[in-house]
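Entry, Tuesday afternoon. Goal for today is a structural model of the target with zinc ion bound, before we commit to ordering more compound. Inputs were pasted exactly as handed over by J.K., no edits. I checked the ligand SMILES twice against the vendor sheet because last time a stereocentre got dropped in transcription.
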Amino acid sequence: MLIYADSGVVVEYNGKRIALDPSKEAAATDMIFVSHAHTDHMHRPVASRARVVASMETLRIAEARGFRYPNATHEPDPGVQMLNSGHVLGSRALLIDDKILYTGDICTRDRAFLKGARLPRCDTLIIESTYGRRGYRFPSVDDVVHRVNTLISEMYSKGLPVILMGYPLGKAQIITSLFRHWEPLYIHESVARINSIYRELGVELGDDHAVVYSSHSDDGRDDDGYGYGGLKHGPWLMVAPKQSNDSTFVRMMKKRYNAVTIAFTGWALAPWHTRLHDYTIPLSDHCDFDELVQVVNACRPNRVYTFHGFADEFASHLRGMGYDAEAIGSNKRILDYI
Ligand SMILES: [Zn+2]
Ligand SMILES: [Zn+2]
C-alpha cells in the first residue's frame, strides 16, 4: 500500500511502514529511507524509534551538514535493498520486496567519478520527474567538457578569471574533477568542505594543488600580485556555489577581478535561467526527459508514480505511452493499494 502523508510518501509492506525521504519525521513508521544528503530529501530527527536507513556516504555527508540521525544504519531490513541512483555520492534508490522501486533523485549517465544508475524491473515505480518535460535533452558530458574548456581558454587569453558554479553538494565535485587541470585553481570554502568529505570517503577529486578561497581572506591586501580578496590578478579558475550575477559575491568578483561566471545546471535549457549568469551550461545530476522515459521502459512497471518538477506532464506523457501513471500531489490522501 502506498500512502501520501503530509511528510511525503509512505509505503506499507509486510505490516511495516517505510517513509521515503520524508520532510519531517512521519508518525508510526518503522523505517525512514533517506536517499541522499540534499536538504530537500532530509528531515530533522526528533525523539522517535524509527530507524533511518541511508548509505554510509549519505549518513556521513548528512552529519557534516548538521543532520545527525541517532538511530541510523546503512543495512536495510531483509527484503529491502538499496541500489545506486547515480545522482550524488552515496545516493540510493530503494527496492522493496523486488516489487516497489523508489528512485529518489536519479541520473543514468556516468559523470567523472560517478557511475550512472542501472535499475531493475519492478511492479510499482515511484520516479522523480524533475526534467520530465519534452525538450529537456542534455548534451553528452564530453560535449560539455569540450565547450567549457574552449570557453575557459578564451577567457584566459583575455586575462579574465572564471568562476564555475554548481550546487555545493554533488555538482561542485563533478566540476572540480572535470576542470581541475586549470591553474591557478581556487575552491570556495563551502565547496572545499564537501570536497574534503568526498576525499575522506575515498573519492580522489585531484584538487590537491587548489587553494581554498575563504571570504574571510578578503582582508584588503594588495601586494605580490594578489588582489583584495587574496586572489591573484590575471586569469584563474574558481569552483564556487551557484549564485546569480546579482549576488554580493559575484558583484564583488566582477568589480575587483572582472570575473566571468559559468553555471552548471539542467535548467540551462530554461529561458528564464540564462539571464542569471554569464554562461549557463546544461550539466545535470538528474536524468533528462529521454533518460527518464528509458528508465520507465527498462523497469516495465504496472504502475508509475511521478514526483518532483514536471510530475503532471511526465505522468500524462507516460499515460500516452500506455502506462498506468499518476503524479503524486501534495494533498494528503491514500493513492493506491498494491
Ligand atoms: Zn538531490
Ligand atoms: Zn530532489
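The chain has seven helices and 19 strands.
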